[in-house]
């Protein structure tokens, strides 16, 4: 079968398409004939040698895909050959066939296209886990989404709107914010592409606070109202770097900061802005509840599919590349040019 192979960590141009042996489904696994696979930022990190997870070479990247069930390993129930399925993977998605663990495979509803299915699960479930399991986002609260034009960021905007939050999207270009507004952002803000400087960070905090609407008058002990309690109830941050500090300072009283990813670098976040507002910082790792609370995952997935059917949660696919040109899609993410989702098709 043909597959995209990483033999040496480095830029996307290192990735090559070649024939490799087809994988075999072991016990509890499903062999899938892949139709499409989405490029996630983690693929850029892993093939670039920057992943926090140990990766062995040669490696076929690809952490989510959609296709048709071709064979079932021993003990797999609930699936049949020919089913349309989406799956989450450790790697291997950019290939004509992939083997996935059955508990990380879901049937694609009839109303969802194969390409949308390939770009749906990771951004949606990560965001569901972030906003609701960790962030406890509620109707009427305010949500700030950094990286608002990214695959994950657009899911956050759509889910925030779906539950009745007021959503502000911030991103590095007007083009990306157009997508954010299309996804339902109530207000948007362009931030600078470089946020290493403290003055720029302070300016960003003040610009963001102008857009925040939650403002609670809070009394701490004998001290009068804390005037800077204005801010966002929830910050969804898939960007990190210098943006994190600026956004954390724009949290409201009892705000929740959701650290989803570090595309701009691992942030050095000071605790001060959290302490003064009874705010909390949450690291977002959706794999943990996936293994521990299967019933909650089932609830989340059925809600996500329902929102898709209602048109409230749709991946925005802006580029599609054939497998032979997948490295061009990787290049878009690496160069910060990708908007919404970039998908690779096998046929
Ligand atoms: N915790 C988890 O399990 C989990 C799961 C899924 C995704 N994530 C994280 O969520 C984030 C978004 O993921 P995604 O797959 O949606 O990726 P993506 O579409 O490529 O989005 C990454 C965003 O990061 C921003 N960015 C800032 N500096 C960048 C740089 N130097 N290079 C590239 N992008 C940069 C860009 O927005 P601006 O240009 O507007 O700043 C870009 O839209 C990533 O950090 C990813 O690792 C985490």
Brief characterization of the structure:
The protein is α/β, with parallel strands linked by helices and 347 residues long.
List the helices and strands and how they pair.
Elements: E1 2-5, E2 16-19, E3 29-39, H1 41-47, E4 64-72, E5 84-88, E6 97-101, E7 105-107, H2 114-118, H3 121-134, E8 142-146, H4 151-162, E9 166-171, H5 174-182, E10 187-190, H6 198-211, E11 232-237, H7 243-248, E12 251-259, H8 272-275, E13 280-283, H9 287-292, H10 294-309, E14 317-322, H11 326-334, E15 341-345
Parallel strand pairs: 8-9, 8-11, 9-10, 11-12, 12-13, 14-15
Antiparallel strand pairs: 1-2, 3-4, 3-6, 3-15, 4-5, 5-7
Bound molecules: NADP nicotinamide-adenine-dinucleotide phosphate.
What does this structure look like?
It is a single chain. The protein has 347 residues and is α/β, with parallel strands linked by helices. It has 2 domains: 149 residues, Quinone Oxidoreductase, Chain A, domain 1, CATH 3.90.180.10; 161 residues, Rossmann fold. Helices cover 29% and strands 25% of the residues. It is built from 11 helices and 15 strands. The strands form 3 sheets. Strands 3, 4, 5, 6, 7, 14 and 15 form a 7-stranded mixed beta sheet that branches. Strands 10-9-8-11-12-13 form a 6-stranded parallel beta sheet, with helices on both faces. Strands 1-2 form a two-stranded antiparallel ribbon. α7 links the parallel β11 and β12. α3 packs across α4 and α3 packs across α10. The longest helix has 16 residues. The radius of gyration is 21 Å and the shape is globular. The model has no long low-confidence stretch (mean pLDDT 93). Bound molecules: NADP nicotinamide-adenine-dinucleotide phosphate.
């Amino acid at each position: 079968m043909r597959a995209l192979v990483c033999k040496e960590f480095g830029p996307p141009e290192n990735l090559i398409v070649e024939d490799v042996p087809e994988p075999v489904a072991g016990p509890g696994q499903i062999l899938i004939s892949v139709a499409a696979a989405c490029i996630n930022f983690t693929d850029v990190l892993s093939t670039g040698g920057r992943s926090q997870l140990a990766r062995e070479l040669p490696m076929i990247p690809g952490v989510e895909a959609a296709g048709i069930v071709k064979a079932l390993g021993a003990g797999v129930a609930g699936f049949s050959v020919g089913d349309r399925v989406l799956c989450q993977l450790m790697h291997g998605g950019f290939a004509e066939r992939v083997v996935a663990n059955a508990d990380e495979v879901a049937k694609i509803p009839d109303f969802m296209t194969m390409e949308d299915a390939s770009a749906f699960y990771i951004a949606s479930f990560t965001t569901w886990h972030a906003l609701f399991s960790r962030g406890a986002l509620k109707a009427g609260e305010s949500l700030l989404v950094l990286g608002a034009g990214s695959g994950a960021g657009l899911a956050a905007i759509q889910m925030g709107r779906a539950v009745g939050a007021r959503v502000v999207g911030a991103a590095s270009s007007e083009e990306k914010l157009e997508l954010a507004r299309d996804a339902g952002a109530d207000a948007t803000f362009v931030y600078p592409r470089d946020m290493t400087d403290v003055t720029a960070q302070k300016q960003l905090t003040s610009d963001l606070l102008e857009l925040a609407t939650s403002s609670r008058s809070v009394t701490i002990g004998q001290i009068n109202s804390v005037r800077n309690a204005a801010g966002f109830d929830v910050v969804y941050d898939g960007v990190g770097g210098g943006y994190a500090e600026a956004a954390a300072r724009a949290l409201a009283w009892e705000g929740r900061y959701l650290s989803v990813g570090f595309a701009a670098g691992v942030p050095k976040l000071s605790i001060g802005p959290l302490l003064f507002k009874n705010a909390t910082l949450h690291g977002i790792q959706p794999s943990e509840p996936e293994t521990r609370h299967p019933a909650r995952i089932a609830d989340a997935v059925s809600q996500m599919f329902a929102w898709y059917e209602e048109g409230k949660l749709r991946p925005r696919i802006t580029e599609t590349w054939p497998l032979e040109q997948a490295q061009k899609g990787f290049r878009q993410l690496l160069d910060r040019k990708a908007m919404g989702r970039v998908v690779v098709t096998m046929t």
